[in-house]
Amino acid sequence: MPLRVHGFALVGAIGCAPPDAESPPPSVDEAIRTVFSQFQDDDPSELVDAVRRTLVPMIDDKIARVEQPDDDLDPGWYLELPPLPTSSLGDLQMPEGVSADDQSVPTSRVNRSAFTVADFRRVAANEDGTCLEAATTKWARRSFASDPSCFAEGFCDELTGVQATLKDNPLLKIWYDQRLEHRVIDIGDDETGPIDALITRGSNDQRWFSQNGNKSWDQLWTLQIVADTDEGAVRFSALWASLQVALLSDALLEQSVRGGLAQEANWRDHFLETGEAHPNCNHDRGAEMPDRW
């Protein structure tokens, strides 16, 4: 077992006490805002509390209540979210001229995976993001601020990168760069022992435009949590976005987001199982970067 470096936890352990276990757990909305806004905190106790006492139980409960588990689009997998306000962005900035009120159909999805946080580290550290997201992601490539193998192999618990992404569907073809920050924390306690949770926060600090400039992707915030359990990992994936695209109604966007979150879950599990792209992904992993404007 590799010796992991918990860079965030060391400072917090010196002078910050964990939340009072006797206090009520935060609500789901409060927990999501806490994880997003306090992602970079040196003391991880608020993150641990939000994930362990609120989000993992919520995920377990939703999964148990899904009426048709074989249907990836069963409404039980999904959870509508309130907008992500500027006050919950932590150290991040809302793009100029954009507000939380512009966010359309904020949506999240839960699922259970046969794989573990140790496996999902490898997905996070993979330089080629093509066929690891929805079919609308035609090409994606990641560059990292540090050696990704350290994170993939469990020797360090932080990894930051930028993913250059080409989105392409009948209504929109656009490039954007998304900042992706990964952090592994221990959400175990004295009774359970160590339990890993992987948190990934995605952000955009500017608006991105189509080639002719008449369409735009104005904001994109994502949050993913993978937590180990006795039955594999449970996963939570959330997305807040606003776009300026003619003919794209909220209903059509919600349908696209829900389908994309389901594809992402299935395609990542398939990649972990086989090392190959899912057969339903028609894009070419390893392809050269398409022309970018």
SSE arrangement:
Layout: H1 7-15, H2 28-37, H3 45-65, E1 78-80, E2 104-113, H4 117-124, E3 137-144, H5 148-152, E4 158-169, E5 172-186, E6 196-203, E7 208-209, E8 216-229, E9 232-244, H6 250-274
Antiparallel strand pairs: 1-2, 2-9, 3-4, 4-5, 5-6, 6-8, 7-8, 8-9
Task: Note down, in words, how this protein is organized.
This protein is of the alpha+beta class. Helix content is 27%, strand content 29%. It contains six helices and nine strands. The chain has helices at residues 7-15, 28-37, 45-65, 117-124, 148-152, 250-274, and strands at residues 78-80, 104-113, 137-144, 158-169, 172-186, 196-203, 208-209, 216-229, 232-244. Strands 1, 2, 3, 4, 5, 6, 7, 8 and 9 form a nine-stranded antiparallel sheet that branches. Helix 2 (28-37) packs across helix 3 (45-65). It is globular. The protein starts with 6 loop residues before the first helix and ends in a 19-residue tail after the last helix. Mean pLDDT is 93; it is low at 1-17.
